[in-house]
Design goal:
2 copies of one chain form a homodimer. With 663 residues, chain A is an alpha/beta fold. Chain A has a 6-stranded mixed beta sheet, sandwiched between helices. In chain A, α12 (515-538) crosses α16 (619-626) and α14 (584-594) packs across α15 (596-608).
């Protein structure tokens, strides 16, 4: 879809947005404030704008009178740009908002195909399983070769194989399949992990089916199980689907899952429940995909790969997890051998092997290893900071030669946990926020443009960053008691800001953000930032040495980089150095199906990843305390940010002063 | 048990027999004829002898009058020697039987431990699975190693392992087992087949269980499934048991089994039925053994090995066998990978791998390969002739550098098939036979010393050899029409010899051997002998080049070497060059559990075994026709035999002449 230009007047701020984008989201992206408190649902009627020129599609609204409509007024949230458009925003404050324009528009990255081109260029595109079409010579009176020998000899002549192993289920299929189309067959080969290993023949089909060869990659998250259907011929993702992990009914976090698994029969239940979710995702992927309207045959799925944190992995494999949560916190294993998928209960054919990512420690699991492999960190010379922020936060620093990693006790704030109106990134969650520096009125946008239900992680970061930038909260996250607005109020001795009054919400209550929420976020970001700093320090380096940041996690796809630096979650770096990879666990699972070198190297990389228990690392606590400010006690760590912040604050102060004078 | 000497008078023939042997069996072994037609049951009362000196235990018999008992008469079949004994046989003929004494007493070989000492001496005693006791250091606050890593690292330090793989079921057991006896554990290691392969950890147990490590070896015969329980620490056989293959109800031979397997559901039935037999044998082995009165724990069984012919192997593994019996007679596979025993339905723990011997062709199967490996033929420089004679007959010639093999269409005569009173070697089967050269009265001994029911294979060979030697039949197997005895008669135009009249049998009929039976045996032995000759000729060698003969098959243990040469089943060689190995398939199954070099080399050896389809080998037919005589058309192939035969015939003729003169 092509982009169009939206020009906002009177500030004359321009922004490129996709054709069909709503005006309010264009304004949000441009840093142009328009009062809006219903999340984009059209009910508050506050986001009135005038379309001065250009084509739009506007839904009619009762909130705008017939006269106003005649004057060109419409609701920004219900107006969608169809070409280059000029939009006039009714000015309610005296501030020159053009100075507050965002330095870089938010990057929209398609992470779905990430990594594929790179591995293709580097010659690493070599799926773990391959289909080959063969026309064998049928046996006759002079040629008594057994079926399997016939096949293996043919392959030996054609390929330089060290040895070949044919599994029993394949042997069982061979006599009938060979004779179905006169010894014209497609064989599925699984490459060995080690170059000295044997290639396995894992399936045989009559005729030529080489065009249909698929893998399924799965990220087993504590909250969500995501899957992708991958075409092993092109490397492309043909379908993606997520379902809540069925284990959620037994507890939200890994600890409660482990506790359930400790009950009699609990482990088996946990395993069956997550496998049921896996099978649900799988069935969806095989039904809804880009190939055709027909279901993909399970026989054409040749591989399934899994990545998950240590607890999720042990529960998936029915491996006793009780010692993960007991001092000294040892997982049972780090490396798992290839497993027959049907042995786990996965609803695929018996020839399918499940590859499971290895773990580093009890709290740096296969999801992180998958991230490190999937994003190519294991191959890069650049000093990389890898951060996976989800239900938990884990960080890895290093490059292809060394790595240090740690789990940070960040808590679930970034997924809405511990926040009074926190929620997951679902419909109705406030995902973006702006504030009028003078009137202190909000502009909120929700996922799905519905009336708000709560605040998601990325919305919370934006909110805290914006409130801090606007001087509404100080560097300790406390509200400026001097600001005069009904939106800031004391409630049960806690100061809060009203994001949306009950009339415009879905929950029949005011939705607010209070100082406890902000404190939770500060502790969470402090834990992550200080975790990174500690790791770097332990290896004699600092944040300045970092050459690239890889930001992962469902969260990572949506967070606004600049805002993340404003609150001090990320170090201040050139945004070009930051790569979003989205769900890196899923990425890693997919990449391990596509490039055999990952399977060859993953155990070595995992062994190389030195795990730090931050709570036992002396320098950590000092780093943590220092990070409990916005952005940090030591603002010199954020020099550019600091300069811009001061500039903006001065502008805002001036505007406020002007407003007072005008009163 | 010590041997004693029995001296038979008046011929003054001595023989060594085990303490407690019956006088009639001692006489049979010594070549001393005593009329006896009830098989040793004591009912015919013919085998009257006088104990002249020495201790015996004699069961009282109504067949001997009080007066005769007072004179020292007793029944040879019910009198057991308790020391050196002199026995007088009432002389009924004028022949000097001392001249007919057997050249070499039958060798009694204990085949149970065969091969063990040899592989121990050669340093090849290295079981495929091994238990090791370890005292690991438990984890603590400074040592967070995962359980499995802790184990693998400990083993790496202790042993020079290339790599180690821990299977999922073991990983699942580890957390609890490690903590049961404070990280003191026994691990079971499975050695890799290839030296570059990974050692697998297949089981872990709390405490020290290294003394209990067992394998089960199984021969899957068309007729019988034999199993042995093997101690992997000492290498000794702790139990042996056989059961009829449950598939017998679906057909006696492999062809009828294949035909049944072709019916819908038939293959699954065939597989389940043989596995049921396997489990029956297994349960017996674990219950009745030399270790103790308690059942052996299934957890201490670390391995099961199988050997069987091609059809039995494919049915055991549920691999479609229909093309074995259809031109061009191809088996599905020759080599099978290691298989989880529980996947086959074998009632062992999931950590147990089943090793299955590879096949050469549709009719030279894993039982023959097992024989070649088990008896060490694959390691010897000596040109060896390996013959496995059972339901079918297969022959292999060669040594460690080359081998040629073939299946001979011998038919089941050696197991009693196609013989009117033929039966398997079970109680009541006539297993030994002698004839009075003058009176032509028989001496028969049956298995179990019961009244006769029929004739088993080894009995048949002895019978035909003896009748030929005594001039009762000629070199074409036809009865001498001039001999005057009621025992030789014409019945429905076929000449026969009465072995036992109905009064002394269990079947209420006369038991006879007729010319059709003899012809069947001649065809069977001719097929085998000419098969060997053809193989040798194809590789430019002859019978004279053979340096040793390995005689295998359930049958092989009982057959009398000299008699086998008399009928021309075996080439004429020094009996010292013949080694009996009994059930070589079972031997091979056992040896593959005890020496890893068999597993490493078996596929190479199998590939080296050049299979000849005798029916397609031009020289075979001529060889076969030439072998349809006793011993052969070309008696110069049996020079010593020929000389002795002439000498004996002359004696017999003299005796008969003397008898006539005396009349």
């Amino acid at each position: 879809m092509s982009n169009v230009t939206v020009t906002f007047l009177p500030s004359n701020v321009e922004i490129q947005v996709p054709h069909g984008e709503s005006v309010i989201r264009a304004a949000m992206a441009a840093g142009v404030h328009i009062n809006a408190s219903c999340g984009g649902d059209g009910v508050c009627g506050k986001c009135r704008v005038i379309i001065e020129s250009g084509p739009v599609e506007a839904e009619p609204s009762e909130r705008i009178s017939v006269e106003d409509r005649a004057k060109g007024y419409c609701l920004a949230c219900k107006t969608f740009v169809q070409g280059d458009v000029a939009v006039r925003v009714p000015v309610e404050s005296y501030i020159d908002t053009s100075a507050l324009q965002r330095t870089a528009p938010r990057r929209t990255v398609s992470v779905q195909q990430i990594g594929l081109e790179e591995i293709k260029q580097q010659g690493l595109f070599l799926p773990a399983v391959e289909k080959i079409y063969l026309e064998l010579t049928p046996p006759d009176a002079q040629d008594h070769l057994p079926d399997v020998t016939r096949l293996v000899n043919h392959l030996r002549l054609q390929r330089d194989e060290h040895g070949m192993e044919v599994e029993l289920p394949v042997i069982r299929k061979i006599p009938a399949v060979f004779r179905e189309q006169d010894f014209k067959v497609t064989v599925t080969l699984a490459r060995p992990v080690r170059s000295s290993g044997k290639t396995k023949i894992i399936n045989v089909q009559a005729g030529d089916t080489t065009a249909q060869n698929y893998a399924v990659a799965m990220d087993i998250g504590t909250t969500t199980v995501y899957g992708q259907l991958v075409d092993l011929v092109s490397g492309k993702v043909l379908a993606e689907h997520g379902e809540f992990n069925g284990q959620i009914s037994y507890g939200e976090d890994v600890i409660s899952r482990i506790m359930f698994a400790e009950k009699p029969g609990g482990l088996a239940t946990m395993q069956q429940v997550v496998i049921a979710t896996v099978n649900k995702v799988l069935a969806h992927l095989l039904k809804h995909h880009k190939v055709s309207r027909e279901d993909i045959s399970r026989e054409d799925v040749s591989l399934i790969t899994f990545a998950g944190n240590t607890t999720m992995t042990q529960l998936l494999l029915a491996v006793e997890p009780r010692y993960i949560r007991r001092s000294p916190y040892v997982p049972t294993a780090t490396v798992y051998p290839p497993i027959r998928a049907t042995d786990l209960g996965v609803d695929l054919d018996p020839h399918v092997t499940a590859l499971v990512y290895p773990q580093v420690s009890s709290y740096v699991g296969g999801d992180i290893v998958a991230g490190v492999m999937g994003c190519g960190m294991y191959r890069t010379e650049k000093l990389t900071l890898f951060m996976d922020i989800g239900t938990n936060a884990e960080v890895v620093v290093g490059n292809k030669d060394w790595m240090a990693c740690a789990a940070c006790s960040a808590g679930p704030a970034f997924e809405g946990g511990g926040i009074q109106f926190g929620m997951r990134a679902a419909k109705g969650a406030i995902e973006d926020f702006s504030i009028d520096p003078e009137t202190l009125e909000p502009m909120i946008v929700t996922i799905g443009n519905q009336r708000p239900k709560g605040i998601c992680g990325s919305g919370l970061i934006t909110m805290v960053a914006t409130l801090f930038e606007a001087g509404v909260i100080d560097n300790q996250g406390k509200f400026n008691r001097e600001l005069k607005t009904a939106r800031i109020r004391e409630n049960n001795n806690v100061y809060e800001y009203v994001l949306a009054y009950r009339e415009t919400t879905q929950i029949d209550r005011d939705i607010t953000i209070n100082e406890i929420d902000i404190d939770n976020l500060i502790r969470a970001k402090g834990a992550i930032y200080s975790g990174c700093k500690t790791l770097l320090k332990e290896v004699g380096m600092s944040m300045e040495d970092v050459e690239q940041i890889i930001l992962a996690g469902g969260f990572g796809s949506y967070v606004d980089l600049e805002r993340a630096m404003i609150i001090g979650l990320l170090p201040e770096v050139d945004p070009e150095k930051v790569i979003y990879v989205g769900n890196s666990s899923l990425l890693g699972a997919r990449m391990s199906a596509l490039t055999n070198s990952i399977r060859q190297q993953v155990v070595g990389v995992t062994n190389m990843m030195t795990n730090f228990e931050l709570s036992e690392t002396p320098s950590y606590y000092d780093n943590y305390i220092a990070a409990l400010f916005l952005p940090h006690t030591d603002v010199h760590q954020f020099p550019k940010l600091q300069a811009r912040l001061e500039e903006r604050r001065a502008l805002i102060a001036k505007a406020r002063a002007g407003a007072k004078n005008a009163d």
